[in-house]
Write a structure and sequence with these properties.
Distance between the termini: 49 Å
Structural class: alpha+beta
Helix content: 40-55%
Largest sheet: 4 strands, antiparallel
Radius of gyration: 21 Å
Number of strands: 6
Strand order of the largest sheet: 3-4-6-5
Mean pLDDT: 87
Low-confidence stretches: none
Number of helices: 4
Strand content: 15-25%
Length: 185
């Protein structure tokens, strides 16, 4: 159990939001972007490895990504990871180069992408709530151990809750903006 530290709680919540931003960048809105494949990790060398550490990702055309795998033996694993990533992509392997055409976004695909965005947002909210729980537990322990008065603990509980609410509102704003971007034709 950690000691209560409001700065640490805020920092951890900001990291959750930064992680959400990174995931949302990966959701495509119609144009190819190398960051689209950032959330993809590949089973390589006995562990999950980010795709960016195994290959060079380029954008040769507006609707095409090219993945140059550094280790030829990993080409099939990379292709499978992209296919299984939930991004709706169908990579085509050509030796060490994997071409990833981006299909036109139809209405159904846009709705699917907004669902993925909402799933990312919910995961961020859950992470923020876990951080709040850690802070609340630390406050209860400090109060029980006599390190903090009951009034101080209540006041700090309110501060932690307000911080949590602010960060959850930021998550909601990020996902709403991404949803509007995805649904824009």
């Amino acid at each position: 159990m950690m000691a209560y530290n409001l700065v640490d709680i805020k920092t951890r919540m900001q990291k959750s939001i930064a992680s959400l931003r990174d995931e949302l960048v990966g959701l495509r809105t119609g144009r190819a972007s190398a960051s689209l494949l950032e959330p993809v990790s590949v089973e390589a060398y006995g562990s999950r490895t980010p795709l960016s550490q195994l290959a060079t990702i380029t954008v040769p055309e507006p609707r095409m990504l090219s993945v140059q795998v550094w280790d030829r033996q990993l080409a099939n694993a990379v292709e499978k990871a992209i296919r299984d990533s939930g991004l709706g992509l169908n990579p085509m392997g050509e030796g060490q180069v994997i071409r990833v055409p981006l299909p036109e976004l139809n209405e159904e695909r846009r709705r699917d992408l907004t669902k993925v965005a909402h799933n990312y947002a919910e995961a961020a909210r859950v992470a923020i709530r876990h951080i709040r729980r850690d802070g609340m537990d630390a406050l209860k322990k400090a109060e029980k151990d006599g390190d903090m008065s009951q009034d101080d603990a209540r006041a700090q509980t309110d501060v932690v809750q307000k911080t949590t609410d602010a960060h959850v509102a930021e998550v909601d704003a990020l996902v709403a903006a991404k949803e509007a971007e995805i649904m824009q034709v």
